[in-house]
Design goal:
With 415 residues, this protein is an alpha/beta fold. 34% of the residues lie in helices and 20% in strands.
């Protein structure tokens, strides 16, 4: 009874009376589940997140400056060999682990299932995105005489499907004892008035809290402790949807070791000043990825003395960290960004409403917002045609068609 009263009290304080009405109608297990969910929600945090949706984002131009980078294609033979040797040593010693963010569904691709289970139509028979990543890791293992521990972050929504898919495909030949699945956190959805949405299961609707939740989820799931036990020193974090992702790039790793930094990242040059990608920069003397929506147009178009874009290094979700850096970030609170999305819900009469317009806020933290906790980051510029073939949209740019072309072209050139 105390739990019910606690739930009712907090709902009253935060003007969520419609949930109290629902509670009164529910019985048994359904009621119990909703009460437990309510008592786990941080309503103070939710109110702050909702209040922030009403504030304008302010970025003062004079605080932003470009970040230096090294261009992989322009490294001298000696420098590249030095970096590669340093990187190889880390992997050969078994001090390297890889994290794949695979919490998304393939909805935008018209695919029913986790994004990693999407089959890319390459070489006639096709390959699943998980299969492509597995091949990438197996090749590194063979090359460096080791087995890299692989941690896959799923969401509550797709964890079971991901597990079943990997089991059914025997992990594409990857040693199962080196693969660990863990789930990312979630936050409730709020409508435009700040009210919680109810789902068909008569629970409060929640959605994944963004890729910035990876750090906390690594710690909360016990994966960070597992890495420490294995003697891991460096961790690579990348997405599941880049068919050309190099998860064990020894040049990137060696550069980070050589420069003595805690974080490093690979970039590619923006296609043009107005490409809709986040770019690396420094803000208030800390590294930062500046979203295209936050970059003043004049700055986006600025060029340096070589005629190159001053802010041309695009972030491609290809990030490297020391284990100490992950531990540090996992205890910090990242800022949240809100996005107005379409989400179905159950109204007070028990009817499902499927909105035609965006009706609710989803709150996410971004992985790159953690860069600001550090004084420095090492950036290695790669090449779009070697490093970036994302599968995001059903058609057009960053679609299965463009990813297939890039993937096949890259591998044809290797052979």
């Amino acid at each position: 009874m105390d739990k019910i009263q606690d739930a009712i009290d907090i709902l009253k304080i935060y003007n969520q009376e419609h949930i109290i009405n629902l509670l009164e109608k529910l019985e048994g297990e359904k009621k119990q589940e909703l009460i437990e969910q309510i008592n786990k929600i941080d309503f103070h945090q939710l109110k702050e997140l909702y209040d922030n949706t009403k504030k304008e984002i302010e970025i003062k131009e004079n605080k932003i400056e470009p970040l230096p980078y090294l261009d992989k294609a322009k490294l001298s033979k000696e420098t590249k060999e030095k970096f590669d040797r340093l990187g190889e040593e880390v992997i050969e010693k078994g001090e390297y682990a890889v994290v794949t963010m695979a919490g998304g569904q393939g909805t935008r691709l018209g695919h029913n299932g986790p994004k990693g289970t999407f089959k890319l139509d390459v070489y006639g028979k096709g390959k699943y995105l998980f299969e492509i990543l597995t091949e990438n890791l197996k090749e590194a293992n063979k090359k460096y005489g080791t087995t890299i521990p692989w941690y896959i972050m799923t969401s509550k929504q797709n964890n079971e499907d991901t597990y079943n898919f990997l089991e059914k495909n025997n992990y594409f030949g990857y040693p199962k004892e080196y693969v660990t699945l863990f789930t990312q956190g979630e936050l409730p959805l709020l409508d435009k008035e700040g009210k919680l949405l109810i789902g068909k299961d008569m629970k409060i609707r929640e959605a994944s809290d963004g890729n910035g939740g990876t750090y906390f989820s690594l710690r909360a799931s016990g994966c960070l402790a597992d890495m420490k036990e294995r003697g891991i020193k460096w961790i690579f974090i990348g997405g599941v949807d880049n068919a050309l992702l190099k998860m064990a790039d020894v040049t990137l790793l060696g550069m980070a070791v050589d420069k003595g930094v805690q974080i490093a990242s690979k970039s590619i040059v923006k296609a043009n000043a107005h490409e809709r990608v986040g770019v690396f920069g420094k803000m208030n003397n800390h590294p930062k990825v500046i979203e295209y929506s936050e970059m003043p147009e004049k700055m986006a178009e600025e060029v340096d003395e070589n005629g190159e874009l001053k802010y041309g290094e695009a972030h491609i979700m290809c990030n490297l960290y020391t284990i100490d850096a992950i531990e540090k970030i996992s205890k910090e609170t990242l800022m949240y960004h809100s996005a107005l999305k379409k989400n179905a819900y159950i109204d007070e009469n028990g009817r499902e409403i499927i909105p035609e317009e965006p009706n609710s806020y989803k709150f996410e933290s971004f992985i790159f917002d953690a860069f600001e906790f550090f004084d420095d980051i090492a950036i290695l510029r790669g090449k779009r045609e070697d490093d970036f073939a994302p599968v995001k949209n059903k058609e057009g740019v960053d679609s299965p068609k463009t990813a297939k072309e890039l993937y096949e072209k890259f591998w044809n050139n290797q052979n």
